Write the structure tokens for this entry.
Amino acid sequence: MKISRVFRLLPPVAVGVAIAVWLVSTAEPPARKDEHVRSVVAHTILADVTPVHTVVRGYGNVRAARTWEAISEISGTITWRNPELDTGNVLRAGSDALKIDPTAYELAVAQAQADLAALEADIAQLDTDEANTGRLLALEQSRLGLSKTELARIRDLVDRGVTSQSALDGQERATLQVRRVVAELQNTLGLLPSRRNRLDAQMARTKAVLARAVRDLGKTDIVVPFDLRVGSVHVERHQFVVAGQPLVSADDIRQAEIIAQIPVMSFRRLLGGARQSALLAPEALSIDFAEISAEVRLVSDLSQTWSGRLVRVESALDPQARSVPAVVTVDDPYASANPPLRLPLVPNMYVELVLTGPVISENVTIPESAVHEGNLVYLRDADGRLELREVSLVWRQNGQAVIASGVEPGEEVILDDLVPAIPGMIVTPVEDEE
């Protein structure tokens, strides 16, 4: 029974196998698909050699180039205060800020002048005494000569027995008396130089006292040394001040300066590749400073700018950042001020410094966005296909990459970031697209 069923199933199976064989043998082979080359559209530029100016940015706070700290050099009462002497006001050079009571110093000047006049009278008296003593000495010397002659005549008479010994003794006493007067007058003249030296010393001392008194009298007027803006006033009218007491603090309005911390390597490029050993030498830097332009921008409003100049670097690197403290000066920081539309450059403003150096080299420069994965550049070759090439960078600044090697002038650089970037695929420039 089972065998008969098997025989009944064989014909349908055989027919199915035959149909399958026939279908496989008569089927057409799969069609061959042509290879498709991938293409992209991208922005490109031609690489070119351009002069490179080093641009360095830094940030810092504004401060006055000069400040005035008025400190009293004398003691006295404030008798007058400038009505404009208040915080924020501007005072011009040469104007009076404060006056200290000058009475005590005027009296000191008068006393010194009186002492000086007395000494001048003493010196004049000494000159007169010297002249008179000289004339008396001349007379007494003449008298002494006559007395000596008379003494010799009487001595001769005594020797001849014509006159007495008493007459000789009297003449000798008279001669000695004249000699004494002559010696006294000579001693008086000899003492006059020492008296004159003493009077000269007293004269010099009195003149010094007078000069100090005049100087102190001049210190009673507190005069503004340069155009300034008042910061703080520490005294009031009728207040007594002592020597060494602070009076006024103010800032110069003719110049402002900013100290910005610049990385050492960036600063070297700014100077045109100066040697690091000579980085802080003033004699090496001063020549290059004239070729460096500086622009100051207000961080809170970049449309407000001022022109400045790099004048110096401070004596030491910043101890934490190890950066160069570059000092930029701005002349006339209050020029064209029109608050609130345009502010003056005042202390404690936070600003950005843009320092532009001279041309230091000529290299191929491309947009920084065209450099991928550190140092990889996409190029469009002569056949319009993508080429990936590694380049050597000098540095990057202001969105530009300066190429030392790897890209030649005239080569077509792809600006877009292609994903995926498959070497050899066709690149169609945007400007060629219809």
Summary: Helices lie at 2-26, 103-159, 165-218, 264-270, 282-289. The longest helix spans residues 103-159. Confidence is low (pLDDT under 50) at residues 273-280. The chain is about 35% helix and 35% strand.
